[in-house]
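ok new one. same drill as before - structure tokens go in, u give me an amino acid for every spot. 451 of them this time. try not to just spam alanines like last time pls lmao
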């Protein structure tokens, strides 16, 4: 740049190849024109002279690097004639002076120093290294250009924090956290390929950012184990995502069901009952008991299983299985009915007939133990043939009633017929006696009159 008459001087530079001092022709030429040209015209002349190959300049390249990586800062020189080249950090501390280390910082290394390019490297880059690095060329005036170093901090895989436990019938509150990123990462909740809107917030963490995304969703028992994903999106990931997979944990009260084998139990058999329990968390302790009584001496409990060997009718009763967790309790019961090995005799009546005598034929039905399943147990209502016995008794009662009705009806009818014949005999005897007394013929006793 051209200077005023009061400040123009001959600029001299020291080269790295020798100590020769030489004037710059552009400055001399400008001084000769000072008295005949105005300052704007001088500036125009200097600008035109800079187009010539003799004009020196410096240019720097901005660079973006990931945290922890290596940055290469380059200074491009034009028409370098051996002038002093200085590289400074963002705090304006000199790193290199004409290729010589000026700041004792091992992470900075001189990679290349030529008349056209000066390049340094910075290893293990951190966000504190971010800023402008100055490439300065000292000629008759100082020329400098700034290389901007940008540091990207990619997010790590986010974490999920449970703010409110998911209880059946309530709602779950989950927060996805990306503790550190630069620029701030974008967080997104996903379930079955669909996005769940969340409340997003962020705060500064030095030169980086912490990002939070919170969702609140209603939950039921069926949602236990549902898959949720928290995705972190960032420019440093090159269209990749950091995904945290999360399984929804829904708490609910337990359910209890006693599993028993089918069949009829008799004395001497064995019984095995299994208490099937669900719940979240799963109950650790399962309690077996007998209602209004204590468990038999031969009863053995192993976790959720109750076993009783050599059953007898003294073991009859209702057995109870109970389980509980922090969210409730549940129970189920089983009624045991043990039979002895006896035969049952039932009377099967034939179809009633008024003309034939009613007889009953005894039919004996022997119930044998079940050889295939000696420890089988059935429900008490289905074990005893109450319906069959009731039908048989009903038929017997009906038959007896029918016999009584028929007997009474026959007796009444026979008595009426006897009385009728007796009255008829009395009438004939009276007519004969009257005819004998009156001297008339008995055959003329009945006369018919036509009115």
């Amino acid at each position: 740049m051209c200077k005023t008459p009061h400040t123009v001087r001959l600029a001299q530079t020291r080269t790295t190849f020798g100590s020769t001092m030489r004037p710059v022709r552009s400055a001399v030429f400008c001084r000769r024109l000072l008295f005949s040209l105005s300052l704007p015209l001088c500036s125009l002349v200097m600008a035109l002279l800079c187009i010539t190959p003799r004009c020196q300049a410096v240019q720097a390249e901005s660079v973006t690097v990931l945290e922890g990586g290596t940055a290469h800062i380059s200074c491009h020189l034009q028409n370098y004639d051996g002038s002093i080249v200085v590289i400074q950090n963002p705090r304006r501390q000199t790193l290199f002076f004409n290729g010589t280390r000026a700041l004792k910082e091992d992470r900075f290394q001189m990679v290349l120093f030529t008349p056209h390019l000066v390049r340094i490297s910075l290893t293990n880059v951190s966000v504190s290294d971010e800023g402008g690095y100055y490439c300065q060329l000292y000629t008759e005036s100082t020329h400098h250009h700034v290389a901007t170093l940008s540091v990207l901090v990619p997010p790590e895989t986010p974490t999920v924090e449970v703010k409110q436990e998911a209880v059946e019938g309530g709602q779950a509150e989950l927060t996805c956290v990306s503790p550190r990123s630069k620029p701030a990462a974008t967080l997104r909740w996903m379930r079955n390929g669909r996005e769940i809107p969340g409340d997003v917030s962020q705060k500064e963490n030095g030169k980086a950012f912490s990002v939070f995304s919170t969702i609140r969703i209603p939950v039921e028992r069926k949602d236990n184990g549902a898959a949720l994903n928290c995705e972190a999106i960032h420019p440093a990931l090159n269209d990749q995502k950091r995904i945290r997979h999360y399984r929804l944990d829904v708490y609910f009260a337990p359910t209890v069901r006693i599993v028993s084998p089918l069949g009829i139990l008799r004395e001497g058999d064995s019984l095995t009952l299994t208490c099937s329990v669900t719940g979240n968390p799963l109950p650790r302790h399962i309690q077996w008991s007998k209602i209004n009584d204590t468990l038999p001496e031969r009863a053995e409990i192993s976790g959720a299983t109750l076993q009783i060997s050599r059953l007898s009718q003294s073991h009859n009763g209702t057995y109870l299985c109970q389980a509980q967790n922090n969210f409730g309790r549940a129970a189920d019961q089983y009624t045991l009915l043990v039979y002895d090995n006896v035969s049952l005799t039932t009377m099967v009546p034939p179809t009633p007939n008024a003309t034939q005598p009613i007889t009953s034929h005894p039919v004996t039905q022997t119930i044998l133990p079940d050889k295939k399943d000696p420890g089988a147990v059935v429900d008490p209502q289905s074990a005893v043939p109450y319906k069959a016995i009731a039908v048989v008794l009903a038929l017997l009662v009906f038959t007896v009633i029918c016999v009584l009705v028929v007997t009474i009806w026959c007796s009444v009818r026979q008595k009426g017929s006897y009385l009728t014949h007796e009255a008829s005999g009395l009438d004939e005897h009276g007519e004969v006696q009257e005819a004998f007394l009156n001297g008339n013929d008995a055959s003329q006793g009945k006369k018919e009159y036509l009115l």
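The first strand starts at residue 57 and ends at 60. and btw The first helix runs from residue 25 to 32.
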